[in-house]
Amino acid sequence: MTKNRVGLIGFPVEHSLSPVMHNAAFAALGMSDWLYDAMSIPPDILRYGLQEPRNHGYIGLNVTVPHKEAVMELVRPDAIARAIGAVNTVDFRNNSGANTDADGIVEDLRANGVPIADQQVLILGAGGAARAVVYGLARAGANLAIVNRTKSRAERLVSELRSAAGIDGIALMTLEEAADWGMSLIINCTSVGLHPHVNQSPWTHGLPFPQGVTVYDTVYRPANTALMRQCVARGGRAIGGLGMLARQGALSFKIWTGVAPPVDVMLRAAQAALENTARSRDENQIEVKD
Ligand code: NAP
After folding, report:
1. Residues 2, 258 contacting (CB under 8 angstroms)
2. Ligand 1 center to 28 CA (angstroms)
3. Phi, psi of 121, rounded to the nearest 5 degrees
4. Which of 24, 128, 147, 225 has the greatest CB tally within 10 Å of its CB?
């Protein structure tokens, strides 16, 4: 008998890896009275989409695209969520909202042995994922620069993080300027390269890719993106975003249950589910056409 329910709201959520990841952790810990499910909630019924699970005794929810910002109005966001401007974890017991993406990426970079403090780190993108990544990396002591297609959005990100969290010194660059900046790490926070556009890269074709840098691609579908292949072809190290997904999920799990879950179990479950869908789509077989 399931007593403790948690889940995910987003639109759409059909391909989410979160249910498989969380339910694998419940199984590994013998928490058979817990269940995680996913609910597809269109934006116009977000209030209802939050209220109904609460009425039915859900303990909390993960929140994903496109609701992460809008849900801020419906819960009490903590200081980190307020600074980032987005909530990805709701706890109905105190109506609080947290954002675990920032700690998720920092923990995954550390788990992969990637240095952060005092490093020059280039962020590609200025959307929701970028806001969390910039917050997390700035707090961890990185020197940051941002490249985004729409400059005004990057300017807004920098100014809001300055006023909300006192984060200063983030440079805005063009990709051409960034190519000569001398970063040790590039983090892709754009949606470029996401399935089905698996041959697209945010590092524009024709611009030489820097040699020997590490790329962390927050995109994890496909597992090996065009940007990651460009990086490896120039002697660099490439890491996909599945670890960030598993670690932000593990931090949400801890908020709801009070238990730190086995991240390796969550990661393996997500990996297996991703490989299953990738096999059927054959999405990882496509080469970069430079
Ligand atoms: P978002 O708010 O919609 O932002 C999208 C970003 O991608 C913007 O910076 C946008 O630039 C840029 N972009 C989109 N199409 C582009 C194009 N054709 N050329 C250049 N730039 C383009 O989305 P988000 O929530 O930040 O998510 C971004 C990605 O992060 C997602 O696709 C997802 O894979 C990944 N993500 C991963 C995790 C994880 O746990 N691994 C967590 C969250 C997100 P403009 O401002 O110019 O539109």
Report:
1. no
2. 33
3. -125, 125
4. 225
> What are the structure tokens assigned to 270, written together?
């997500």
Burial class (CB in 10 A: 0-12, 13-18, 19+), 138: buried
Alpha carbon of 130 to ligand 1 centroid (Å): 8
Class of residue 57 by CB neighbours under 10 A (exposed 0-12, middle 13-18, buried 19+): exposed
Are 147 and 122 spatial neighbours (Cβ–Cβ below 8 Å)? Answer: yes
Amino acid at 72: M
The strand ranges marked E within the chain are: 4-10, 34-40, 60-63, 76-77, 89-91, 96-98, 120-124, 143-147, 171-172, 185-188, 214-217, 237-240
Task: State if residue 245 touches ligand 1 by the CB under 6 angstroms criterion.
Answer: yes
Largest CA distance in the chain: 59
Amino acid at 211: Q
Active site residue 254: no
pLDDT digits (tens, 9 = 90+) for 10-64: 999 999 999 999 999 999 999 999 999 999 999 999 999 999 999 999 999 999 9
How much is the pTM?
A: 0.94
